[in-house]
Every structure is written in C-alpha cells, then in structure tokens.
Amino acid sequence: MEIIADCMSPHAGEAQEGHMQLVWREPFQVEERARVVAWTCHCRTIVYELCRAAGQSYIRRTSFGKDGQTVHETYRWSLAEAAKVWDALLKGQAR
Ligand SMILES: [Zn+2]
Hints:
Elements: E1 35-39, E2 46-53, E3 56-65, E4 68-73, H1 79-90
Antiparallel strand pairs: 1-2, 2-3, 3-4
Zinc ion (ZN) is lined by residues 4, 7, 11, 41, 43.
C-alpha cells in the first residue's frame, strides 16, 4: 500500500484477485441525513464512506472527476455487516 505522510485516514487497498463485487446503486434519497462513521483518505479520486442512517449502515462511494462528483451507495446492512464489508474494502477484498 502506498503511504503518504500527510494522510490521516486509511486508503482502500488495491483490489485483490477474486474480490467481493459490491452493488453500487444510485443514491437512495437526496436529502437523507446520514452520519459518516469512517472514511478513506481524500487524497484519492475515489473516497469511500461508511454511513449510518435510520439504524442502517451502508457504504457511499464518491468519485471526483473532471465533470464533478459521482455518488453511489451500497445496499443497507446492519452495522455489523457493514463493518465487515468496510474491513474487506480496506483490505482490497471488496469493491
Ligand atoms: Zn491519502
């Protein structure tokens, strides 16, 4: 994994062979109040955030490109399930 001195947050690891394929959907609701529990480093063009809303958890992916940002989200899970997926994402075992 690449290490940059200024980075305070983890980076999503390089995707591993045979990693779990997450389903990335259009954001469920625009004005949903979500609490961001964890996030990956903003030095990357793709930032992942572990979110909680209404007792459910999911991962939000924001891609920053020339045309602005694109947001996608996973399905809703329990916090325990989402934490497992988050862990897998950081290890490159899910995308
Ligand atoms: Zn970084």
